[in-house]
Structures are given as C-alpha cells and as structure tokens.
Amino acid sequence: MRQIFFITGTDTGVGKTVLTVLLAQFLREGGVNVAALKPVCSGNRDDARKLFAALNGAVEVQGPKSKVQSCVLSLDEINPWHFRAPVAPSLAAKLEKKSVKLSQVVAHARALQKRFDVLLVEGAGGLLSPLGENFDSRDLISALRATPVIVAANRLGAVNHLLLTLAALPKNLRVKTQIVLMSLPKPDAAANSNANLLAQFFPAGKIFTLPWLGKKISASGVLKNPPVRRTLRALAR
Questions:
Q1: Region 39-55: what's the mean pLDDT?
Q2: 69, 63, 79, 64: which is closest to 25 by C-alpha?
Q3: 97 is catalytic
Q4: Which of 26, 29, 42, 110 is the most exposed place for a label (fewest CB within 10 A)?
Q5: Each residue's pLDDT tens digit, 61-79
C-alpha cells in the first residue's frame, strides 16, 4: 500500500527536517522505495538540500540479499516552490508577486506518489503557518489523506503546544497522528515528564522521544543507535 506521512511541528526549528532525513534514510536502508518532499519553503533551501542529500546518495540495503539502492530526485522535485524572504511562505511568495495553490501542491505530491511506496512530506513552520494561497499544512494533510507526525522540542511548554496542535486537526486525522519529542542538549525540568503527562490526553503508544543527536548529525551514524532505529521503525509502521 502506498503511504504518505506528513511531518509537521508545533513551531519552526523543532526538528522536522532532522526527523524527515532520518526516516528517509532508515526506510531506504530497509529497501523501501521512499521519497521525501519539502514542497514549499522560504528564506533558503537548506532543509530541501538535506532531503536531497539523504535521498540521492546510494545506500546499502540491509538484509540477507545485500544490494545498493539509489533514488534520483532533483532538488526542484523535492522543493518546487521556494521564496527568498525569511517569512511565512505565503507572504514570501506575495513579495515576489507569485502564489502557490493547494491544488498545485497536491498534484505534485500525487504524481510522485505513483513512483514511490512511501512519501514523506515536510511542512514549513507549524501546522497552521500559511503555506500558500489560502491553505496551510492542515489543509495539505487533509487533501493528501496523510498520516500526521507532529514534532516538538522536548521542553517546558511542549505539552500545551502539542495539545493545541492536536486540537487543530480534524478528528479523522487526529486518530492517526503520531508525536515525536526531540530532546535538547540541556534538558529542562519538564523534559523527563512531558511524555507521561501527554499520555494522559493522547495514546502513549503514539508518543515517541528521540535523544539529543548533536548540532551537526550524520544520518548514517545516528542510524547505528538501536533506540533510534526502534523509534523510526515504530513511526513507519
């Protein structure tokens, strides 16, 4: 079955790209035909370039029949709409007298979905940050009937931000949602209790925590960590 995961977040800079890169490389190493997109971005294309690097390097598929798998996607296929100003994409597009429509993004994702078994789609900013002409990540998730994955920094305030994000999702999407708490280099007092507190409001089996992975990570190196691999495997079920 072809599947779409949409990686969104409680805010910008919470680790969406890190998670998308790790998921993409983990699935590729497992022999899954996977693609990753950041359809719309503003400010720069750094995140899209990280996805490009994760997808386009040949990797050795794990298992008894070892082989090398490569995935050729251009940067413009991964990130078709990009704008210079470091503001919300919809505003950045207007500054360049351009626009992005929901139907365009959905059509692009559906076209790539025909070529891949799993599609990872990364949003920009938080769930309700405007992506284009009268649409946001929530609209795109609904249109693609994707499985939402909400990423949050594991710190004081995360539970409130996550519950607000969950509340903003329609019920049919909320029941499919998974949550990833990204650990920080210096955990605060709330970090150890956030997952348990959140489990009072959301199924514990859909809440995951990733350790601090460093400022500059090597996906190949991180994927040697058994707990990280277990988390990624559970997310991709």
A1: 94
A2: 69
A3: no
A4: 110
A5: 655 555 656 677 999 999 9
Residue 232 to residue 225: CA distance in whole angstroms: 11
Q: Which pTM does this prediction carry?
A: 0.93
Rounded Cα gap, residues 143 and 137, in angstroms: 10
pLDDT band at residue 21 using 50, 70 and 90 as cut-offs: very high
Tokens 């607000």 belong to 164
Residue 2's pLDDT is 81
Q: Can you tell me the distance from the alpha carbon of 182 to that of 43, in angstroms, rounded to the nearest whole number?
A: 23
Say if CB 88 and CB 133 are below 8 A apart: no
Alpha helices in the chain (DSSP H): 16-29, 46-56, 75-78, 89-95, 102-113, 137-144, 158-168, 171-174, 194-198, 219-222, 226-235
Could you say which architecture CATH assigns to the domain 3-235? 3-Layer(aba) Sandwich (3.40)
Give the separation between CA 127 and CA 63, rounded to whole angstroms. Answer: 37
| Residue 101 CB neighbours (<10 A) | 13
* β 147-153/130-132 pair status: unpaired
Write down the catalytic residue from 38, 50, 67, 176.
38
**Helix, strand, or coil (residue 159):** helix
